[in-house]
Amino acid sequence: MLITGGTGAIGGHVARWLAGRGAERLVLTSRSGAFAAGVAALAAGLAAAGTTVQVLVATSADAPTSPGCCPGSPPPARR
Ligand SMILES: NC(=O)c1ccc[n+]([C@@H]2O[C@H](COP(=O)([O-])OP(=O)(O)OC[C@H]3O[C@@H](n4cnc5c(N)ncnc54)[C@H](OP(=O)(O)O)[C@@H]3O)[C@@H](O)[C@H]2O)c1
Known about the structure:
The protein has helices spanning 9-20, 39-48; strands at 2-4, 25-30, 52-57.
């Protein structure tokens, strides 16, 4: 599952909630990615719950930075 803004306050809560309910894999994206404050502790907690975590840099408003985060996801719609 992909959580955009996943390194933020609400994103972190959602990630922990999903991990607590057995999510196997979570992709957390934000502009800061792995440099976001507190993301190491968040990722460690999710991993301890048995969830595989990827923290990636992706700017939601910038399609080119997004498709690489979810292999197999369809390419962004062309306008
Ligand atoms: N917390 C609340 O009680 C509350 C209540 C109602 C509504 N909201 C709304 O819910 C949203 C999230 O709130 P929050 O408290 O979790 O805020 P937050 O802690 O600042 O988290 C926002 C997350 O989104 C990422 N982000 C921001 N702009 C982005 C962009 N263009 N592309 C990719 N990632 C981006 C941020 O990381 P980077 O800055 O590194 O990109 C961060 O991970 C906000 O829009 C807020 O207004 C929050």
